[in-house]
Amino acid sequence: MSTYTFVGASAVGQLDTYEAPIPTPGDGEVLIKVDYSTLGPFDLYNLDRGFYVREYPHRFGCNAAGTIEKVGASVEELKVGDRVISFTAYPPNKGLQAYTVQTPSLVAKIPEWLSFVEGVTLPDNFVTAFYTLFNQLGLPIPTEFPSKSTPPKSTTPILIYGAGTTSGQYMVQLLNLAGYKNVIATASKQHENYLRSMGATHVFDYRSSSLVEDVIKAAGGKVELVVDCASLSNTFATISKVIAPAGTLAFLAPLKLSASLSGEDGELPVEIPEEVRAWFPKGVSVISVKTFFFQKDERLANTLVPVVLRKMIEDKLIQPNRICLVNQGDILTRVKDAFELVRSNKVSGQKVVVKVPV
Fold it and tell me: Has residue 17 got a pLDDT over 70?
């Protein structure tokens, strides 16, 4: 039986290499030979805190880019040799391993002109952004992109807090493509021009002492719709000062009660704690966005990745994240190095991409 080596967690904070047999796809599944995967904050929570880890060894990587190696029965839309990207969020079929089994609903074919290393940045952040805006926040899904019709709240100020993050960049792009004309973004100063090029109307430095006043002035009052891509206690504190009394805040779960992404110096609640909820006016609706549940929306379950994402790529409507590539050393060294980049916040606005050797 042919095997491959993967890196997984054997316990909290402990990485090791393992041998596994190359899997065979079942009915309605495909086997992807992976060239690149990604590591992000959620993977770090898995490793350093055991967050949402059900069993060990735990595998990592919410994205994969590679080639279809085998196709199971009943699969018609994909064939051996197709170049694909996949949203690989569900254990044990994660992306940071040489082979991963996925269902076609989580796989998008990509054109020859899109490299694997760029394409692998797309799935999880794109799904998160789309699901947040057009399900959790309740904005209507456009019938096409770019939208040829004007959405009902096209001029309503929408605040994307943490727009410089890899998920925030897709939020801004999607809002622009959907016809929203008053997108207010907060980010590091270095991301200002980049976010404006993607469609942000206003961009404010989140470190500015006048941030609250600047946002309220740009919005012409307090903001009705807010997405928090950072989901930190201090971002909540700022948002509580700019959100309208009957506004809606969608935050990307979990909420970090400390500035550290790692360690035990802060909780990671998935729902907003009562003491934090008290910071907001009583009429504010606070939504915890759990991207991994996006397929509960029947409108998105079987189309968001293989149809919507694929078409946006083919039409060159969506811009991949910038990358920080980790491709030196053996696979264990690469994974350790990639985790350290995420843990230490040494990358800003870039996706940490890992080359996956077979």
Answer: yes
